[in-house]
Amino acid sequence: MDVQQEFKMRLKSDSAECMVPLAALLKSEFDSDKGQSPTVRYGQACHDKKGEDHMLAKVDCQRLPSDGSSTFGVFGVFDGHNGASAAIFSKENLLRNVLRALPITTSRDEWLAALPRALVAGFIKTDIDFQEKGETSGTTATLVLVDKWTVTVAAVGDSRCVLDASGGGVFALSVDHRFEENAEERKRVIDCGGEVCRLSLAGGAEIGPLRCWPGGLCLSRSIGDVDVGGFIVPIPHVKQIQLPKAGGRLIIASDGIWDALSCEKAAKCCRGLPAELAAKQVVKESLRARGLRDDTTCLVVDLLPPFGYVSQVPKSVNKRSNLKAIIARWRSKGSSTVVANKSNAAGFVEELFEAGSAKLAERLGSDPSLGVLNCAICQANMTLHDGVSVHAGSAFSTTNQTSTDGPFLCLTCKAKKDAMEGRP
Ligand SMILES: [Zn+2]
pTM for the whole thing? Predict the structure, then answer.
């Protein structure tokens, strides 16, 4: 059965849901209680202007080698600037660096719990490796791991990941690291020694978005950008959620889309279409709204309920309440930093984890066993004397306190940490 046929069948089964006998409904609930996996379908579309956007889509990764039940999916969007090399490098290396930082374990829960920290390590390792090449290019990176109903999103830059939950509600799962919209990031970079202002013309007039100088980058976090300054950090905002069995749609896209469409508009314009057509529709809609000004890339990932799944909420009621909830949420919270609250009334999306700090010590925590024999970032082997605690003061620190608590970093990664924190 091809995607279109299957989609039509799902639509049929959805529309007939009010006639499903009670026995089938109970069976459906019983199956979903056993943790039945969603069917994952994805589609991608792009319209190039500069050729700097790149995408990643893999649905056959395995937590445990040769164990089909440990399969997970990985999706990514990388929007390069000053060339495509950082975007291509990240597409090819980021996932491997994240997986290397994960414990070898048969426990899915343990693996998922370790994921946020491994994502931080993997992003930094990829940045260090790319910067060593000496190329000046940089990239956003939005990496999404889908393991059964658990979705983990890690992102630097402004390639947003949005959830259109089937149970109701549209949520941004990432935060935009743009100086223009993110006051917290402006303060961080200024405190680190960067200058944030608009481009000045000869007459004194200021134009364009807020940028960081030297370099003139609009983004406060990225992978690459060796020429801009260490305070443009590769530490991702990470969010982990649990979707209800009704599933949902993820829209991962570069700013070519988000500069033209709100999260809600993007979600709305492709509802009812299968993933492949939905991605095309979102790109088409953004080009219609704003024209082709930038690379415009969209990846749509559907987590479809198990075949025969029956929603517990009647669709007609659901749709009305969704719309009200969406309007209220967007009115009250504005644009890009809306997040799903734990078990919110409209969406039934459970928030498992969220962290966005640019402080490495906070993000790696204080697990004394982590990084004793391997660097917590790059996994390089260390002897007991090589490692420096992530909690030790920086070379610029006035107090320069020492710490014997793990996690520990090798000297290269410690130097990276100091550079990211800038001047005290
Ligand atoms: Zn290291």
Answer: 0.84
Residue 168: its pLDDT value, please? Answer: 86
How many A from CA of 38 to the centre of ligand 1?
37
Mean pLDDT of 407-411: 91
Q: Let me know: does 352 contact 241? Beta carbons within 8 Å.
A: yes
**How far away, in angstroms, is 410 Cα from ligand 1 center?**
4
| 102 and 110 Cβ atoms separated by less than 8 Å | no
CA of 133 to the centre of ligand 1 (A): 17
Q: Is 382 left (phi over 0), alpha (psi -120 to 50) or beta?
A: beta
Return residue ranges of the chain for CATH 3.40.1800: 359-424
> What mean pLDDT comes out for the span 380-384?
83
391 CA → ligand 1 middle, Å: 15
State the span(s) of the chain assigned CATH 3.60.40.10. Answer: 3-178+233-355
The answer to whether the CB of 314 falls within 8 A of the CB of 295 is no
Residue 308 CA to ligand 1 center (angstroms) comes to 48
Query: How many angstroms is it from 171 CA to the middle of ligand 1?
Result: 35
Please report the pLDDT score of residue 48 as a whole number: 87
Tell me the CA–centroid distance for residue 412 and ligand 1, in Å. 6
Q: Which CATH number fits domain 359-424: 3.90.1200, 2.60.120, 3.40.1800, 3.30.43?
A: 3.40.1800
Q: What is the CATH class of 3-178+233-355?
A: alpha beta
